[in-house]
Design brief:
single chain
Length: 139
């Protein structure tokens, strides 16, 4: 089960910086069993965890975090990853991690794991200039 406070982190391992017009996007459906009497999952409305503007000017090796999700208890989710890269030919991935907030120790980043640390949920392989994806991930 996903704890009540979490986020998705994207790490730019493409080897190129994103331009101001480039984008990252992750649309996800989260699910739980709270309203199901037949043992079937109940899906929340599709949420854009990374809006299409999230990749703007992301340096090679840089990270961007989704909005923190809190207060909702979900068991898991599935999502689609997209990106656009326009400035140089990428040769790598955009790696995605599910991160949980640690309110007990508060370390190392005010309760969030270090960059690039967490549950790896998938990658979007980027090998050409232009639109990348979609790639499906499940977490």
């Amino acid at each position: 089960m996903i704890p009540s406070e979490w986020r998705i982190q994207a790490v730019n391992a493409t080897g190129v910086a994103f331009a101001a017009t480039d984008t990252l996007q992750m649309d996800a459906e989260l699910w739980n069993m709270a309203n199901s009497t037949a043992g079937e999952p109940t899906y929340a409305a599709t949420a854009s965890l990374f809006p299409a503007t999230a990749g703007n000017s992301l340096a090679a090796g840089g990270v961007v975090n989704s909005n923190t999700q809190s207060g909702n208890v979900y068991i898991g989710g599935e999502g689609l990853l997209y990106a656009t890269v326009s400035t140089a030919t990428p040769a790598g991935n955009i790696n995605y991690y599910l991160q949980f907030f640690d309110s007990v120790t508060g370390a190392p980043n005010g309760g969030w794991p270090a960059n690039g640390v967490g549950q790896f949920i998938g990658a979007l392989v980027c090998t050409a200039v232009g639109a990348q994806g979609p790639n499906q991930v499940v977490f």
